[in-house]
Amino acid sequence: MIALPVTSTVASILAIVMFPMTLQISIRRAALGDVVFGDADDAALRRRVRAFGNFVEYVPLCLVLLSLMEAQGASFLWLWMAGGLLLVGRIIHALGMLFAKSPAPRVVAMVMTYGSFLIPAGWLLANPRG
Fold first, then answer.
1. Membrane-crossing residues (predicted)?
2. Which secondary-structure segment (H or E) carries 10?
3. pLDDT value at 130 more than 70
């Protein structure tokens, strides 16, 4: 059995980060009268849904790449660089989507997120296992 301690840690932290994001959506939907679909043309709900949506659009592929990299023997330095960029980038992006007036935090967060999938992709291509 292959142990993936870095990927497991990063995935667990991201699951904890995801929980308040989804809870905020549920709370807002209930406050609006139990809106089940769409955003009821409510800016706050729309912002929460997009912050969560962006999170789930990037995190799964990044975790798959991180786990492949870890399973193929990448060093902890490479793994934590990619995993750390993912963690910090996703947290900054969510906070930026939910609270910031300026797009600057989201821009920084997206650059970090790009690194979190380009580093493993590059590493995997440079270190093929056959």
1. 6-23, 55-71, 77-100, 107-126
2. helix 5-31
3. no
**Among 58, 59, 79, CA closest to 124:** 79
Q: Are 113 and 96 in contact (CB under 8 A)?
A: no
Report the amino acid identity of residue 93: H
DSSP one-letter string for 44-69: HHHHHHHHHHHHHHHHHHHHHHHHHH
Residues with Cβ within 8 Å of 59's Cβ and at least 6 positions away in sequence, in order, are 14, 18, 86, 90
Using alpha carbons, list the distances in angstroms from residue 44 to 75, 95, 118: 42, 13, 32
- Using the predicted structure, report yes or no on whether residue 47 has a pLDDT greater than 90: yes
Structure token digits, residue 29: 């939907």
pLDDT digits over 67-113, tens only?
999 999 999 999 999 999 999 999 999 999 999 999 999 999 999 99
Please give the domain boundaries of the chain with CATH numbers for all domains. Answer: 5-126 (1.20.120.550)
Mean per-residue pLDDT of the chain: 94
Which amino acid belongs to residue 3?
Answer: A
